[in-house]
């Protein structure tokens, strides 16, 4: 790991200003813009981003660079980011992971889910993961790896695209119709011209779930990876998570996903939902 050092002081230490506005800016007086922008910076880190600098964070979020500089300084001071001197960039700090860990612990999810997930990962030599939605992505909450060589080098905090991953499609399938319609409308705005093709695949995935109880994605969001997923519906559907199982697309054919791994992940999702309901 690179040696870390003192955090660079922002050039302008004034009040946070400028940047991409929250949709409710100027309308919702309860919305704290500075806090919202800080969280947007944390969301900007993708699954393959070890380090990001202020310029790239500004480009990804639309927040002006001087504002980004003040935000990253503050986030690093609080432990949500770590400044790496050799890179002159930031990486995610432990502080950013604590809320998710506390959510899992407080809800009893990790204690119940982890042994079941790990057992399936060992039995199938595949990666098993539990995720929750975050904007247009799915955020990994827990990941259990097989004993063999790792194909999916993903960890808690990693993100997968909601529209093209099995775990995202399964989450959408688990939603109540009204909520799903609202999320699909937001995904349409986000993806723009790509949406018609994505929507056709999503509709097929929703039909698959209605018929078989799981959704699959074969070499889509990543050509080297395939997986199958099922929704975990909690509190009578008031809260929905998603769980998947996956591995190398060269090893996991659509037939294996449909006839072997699909039924197993559906059973795990049902078992997990039932046990979490009993523990509530």
From TrEMBL:
Any GO BP annotation: negative regulation of DNA-templated transcription
Highest rank taxon of the organism: Bacteria
Domain HTH iclR-type: 32-94
Domain IclR-ED stretches: 95-278
Gene3D superfamilies: 3.30.450.40, Winged helix-like DNA-binding domain superfamily/Winged helix DNA-binding domain
GO terms for MF: DNA binding; DNA-binding transcription factor activity
Pfam family, any one: HTH_IclR
Keywords for the protein's UniProt record, in alphabetical order: DNA-binding, Transcription, Transcription regulation
Residue ranges, annotated region (Disordered): 1-22
Protein name: IclR family transcriptional regulator
Organism of this sequence: Cupriavidus campinensis
